[in-house]
Amino acid sequence: MLAKGPALWQDAKNLIPGGNQLLSKRSEKFLPGLWPAYYAKAKGCDVIHGGFRRLT
Fold first, then answer.
1. Which of 49, 30, 32, 53 is nearest to 40 (CA)?
2. pTM of the entire structure?
3. Rounded Cα distance, 1 and 17, in Å
4. Could you tell me which of 45, 51, 17 has the C-alpha nearest to residue 37?
5. pLDDT digits 0-9 by tens, 9-41
6. 35-19-50 Cα angle (round to 5)
7. CA atoms within 13 A on the CB side of 32
8. Distance in angstroms (rounded) separating the CA atoms of residues 46 and 20
9. Is the torsion defined by CA of 31, 7, 25, 41 positive or negative?
10. 19 to 28, 29, 51, 53, 55: CA distances (angstroms)
11. Checking phi first, is residue 32 left (phi over 0); if not, alpha (psi -120 to 50) or beta?
């Protein structure tokens, strides 16, 4: 799933200006190319992105 994230984000940007409707939620605003645009789940301050890697 990790490899699909950038492709999904590009598809979203082609359909929706900026990739989503909220300027403050755009992943490329914070850490371009490194912060995942999509998450499998989040709990507390831990984030598990689509590739099931834990980010704390």
1. 49
2. 0.51
3. 24
4. 51
5. 888 889 988 887 777 777 777 777 777 777 777
6. 40
7. 2
8. 22
9. negative
10. 10, 11, 20, 23, 22
11. beta
Annotated domain spans of the chain: 4-55
Nearest CA to 35 among 11, 1, 5? 5
- Residue 32's nearest CA partner among 13, 15, 48 is 13
Which tokens hold the place of 35?
């912060």
Strand order in the sheet with 54-55: 39-43, 46-49, 54-55
Q: Give the pair of three-digit tokens for residue 48.
A: 């598990």
